[in-house]
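Margin note from the TA: students keep mixing up input and output lines. Inputs are the sequences; the output is the structure of the whole complex. Example:
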Amino acid sequence: MPMNRQILLDNRPQGEATADNFRLVTTETPALRDGQVLVRHHYLSLDPYMRGRMNEGKSYAQPQPLDQVMLGGTVGEVVESRHPKYAPGDKVQGMGGWQEYSVVDADQPGALRKVDTTHVPLSHYLGAVGMPGVTAWYGLVKIIAPKAGQTVVVSAASGAVGSAVGVLAKARGARAVGVAGGPDKCRYVTDELGFDACVDYKQHKDANSLSKALKEACPDGIDGYFENVGGMVLDAVMLRANAFARIAMCGMIAGYNGEPIPMAYPQLILTNRMRIEGFIVSEHMEVWPEALNELGVLVGTGKLRPRESVAQGLDAAPEAFLGLLKGRNFGKQLVKLV
Ligand code: NDP
């Protein structure tokens, strides 16, 4: 069996996470028992929710135990199998974590899924045609539920979740407007993803200024907002919300280090009769097949062209993860191992 390099959570962050919170180790891979397969990971997924899991207290995911492999999504190839349904060479998606190989009990529900790479590249199963894509689908379709002609705004618009939100909104005849950090990200959002407009929030010092820019991008106001960041962006959107606007509360990355991110205008929820609903994608497994089907078609037909930031090698995972929390990624953040 191959030697396996792994990244463990060594200690919990105080405030901002740092590279010292992680530890790299090399271990022996145990021999397979009946029902198990050995997977060689080609890509690891790095996701903002991992920051919440690094804390002791309850976040929207359970805490990551200390001295154990950082949990996370992976795609790779079966290299050895003692399970009748899997053979060497099969491409699979699972939750292998920050390590080069994993031994998987393949009968465990949700542990492993074969994926078809004929029309969709393997890495996209961690992004647009994976958990982030389904997250976009759930918040947009089930919470915002835009009608044709309505305006949907999404923050972190160039990211794994945000990019899919806009394309799904356009497919429903809505006006899609992104909020993203920097001119390159905004250009990608409009030119490659086909959003109607994108506002660079980094050009604005406060919510009032950002809100003026949103007024130009959303001349008919905002009917749906897909929230990924919180803070000033949320305040600016609230100021432009129409009556009966819906907000899908997906992520609040601006507050993941524990800092307070107060909402400036909660009274607008009342005066605009708004509905704000938080959700966790893993609690809605019933929508995954329908969502993955639509997302697979959008990617396969080139209507959704996801962008990826790819760090090379396991050692690069901690820095790439810290960069993701600061917006240094451009699109889905991955680590390439093979
Ligand atoms: P992204 O690919 O969008 O990467 C994160 C992006 O957030 C960065 O690129 C950056 O974009 C933006 N960002 C980072 N820090 C800040 C900050 N302080 N203020 C404002 N923006 C910031 O990540 P994902 O697409 O994977 O995730 C998007 C959101 O969805 C996250 O909040 C995540 O936690 C949430 N999520 C929730 C799920 C659920 O079930 N509820 C499931 C999956 C994801 P920019 O440069 O444009 O600012």
